[in-house]
Amino acid sequence: MVVGGGRVARRKVRGLLEAGARVRVISPEATAELVHLARSGRIEWLDRPYRQGDLSGALLVFAATDNQQVQEAVRQEAEATGQLINVADDPGRCSFHVPAVVRRGR
Question: Is the predicted pLDDT of residue 103 greater than 80, yes or no?
Answer without folding.
Answer: no
